[in-house]
Amino acid sequence: MFYGWTVVATVFLVLMVAAGLGFYNASVILNAAVDELDAEVGAVSGAVGLFFGVSGLTGFALARFMDRVDLRWFYASGGVVGSTALYGLHWVDSVPKLYVFFAVFGIAFSLCGLVPGTTLVARWFDRRRAMALSIASTGLSMGGIAVTPIAERLIRNNGLAESGRMMSLIWFLGVVPAAVLLIRSKPSEKGLEPDGAPKPPSPLALRGATFTQAVGTRFFRWLCLTYAMIFLAQVGAIAQLFNLISERVDKDTAAFAMSALALTSVVGRLVGGVLVLKIGSRTMTIVLTLFQGMALALIALAGTGPALVAATIFFGVSIGNLLMLQPLLLAEAFGVKEYSRIYSFNQLFSTVGVASGPLALGLIHDAFDYRTAFFLAAGANVIGFVALLLAGNTAKPLAIWSSA
User: Fold this and answer.
1) What is the value of pTM for the model shown?
2) Which of the listed CATH numbers 3.30.390.50, 3.40.30.120, 1.20.1250.20, 3.30.1330.10 matches domain 4-188+206-402?
């Protein structure tokens, strides 16, 4: 079997742990912090925003080293830092300390998150990149299904302080051993080329645009705005969804809805990995951006448990696919030569939306209500839709380097 699939499986596992205790679990930690620290939603929402902001900045700062350093060191470092941060929840007894926790945790999430993960998959696959990315990134959603419910129950039964110790152990064991033993940074380390082709006598140079060429294109600039808006709405909604459903119904319904959200994201992403080959990545992104906006509007309007769960399931269809499509669009347009820098810089702009989403929706909730907050999140998707239309297709950026 082509070793690239082992790399995909390892990235899947690491993303499952990282997302289960970080991405999806941020909403659960936020809800617990509101109760345990007796704080306003808006005050603690900023801590979740800091988590995503620090993650994006760290990814961009370290991306230039990913072409020169064995990626296993990134994962090992992320395992140690993340485990230490989660253990440190034992001492989080105030809002400022919560912000410190999320800042350190954001560094760990970046070190074993999407930037190294998508970089690995893009290097190991060319023709089957869409399918490989869809499988690897499905680990994010599986984290919400398999890991976040465990974390939620630990936090509910034991509080943040005691549950942090147990989550620390899960993080370390789920990240470090598999990544260090199984990850290989490039196909050449196994004597192969992407997709499993035999390595030629003379190594082929990685093809693609340079970082400078990529950031100078209209496609790159508008795609930055597109995903800033998509993730503002998406991550803001995920961070506040548990609290919204808890307010309107109860915590059991909220926990069930979060699991349904993750499960729908898994199914949707796997279907999307096949569908994108037929309709194209840009067309699929356009459709799903509007679909996500509609789903958020439905959540804003829903008032009963069944209606909220149904709207959450619709939301889940867009989550996994839009996350997968960002690295796929960039790889199609700019190749893999300097992919890690290009992707991380695009993600840095996206992080503006990621970091501001939880805080923005939290503050709007405190000033008005969740209905207003989620309607404004739906509007952010409309802005993203327009920006993607203005970006154009991948043909022009592709022409910059493919003919060279």
Assistant:
1) 0.77
2) 1.20.1250.20
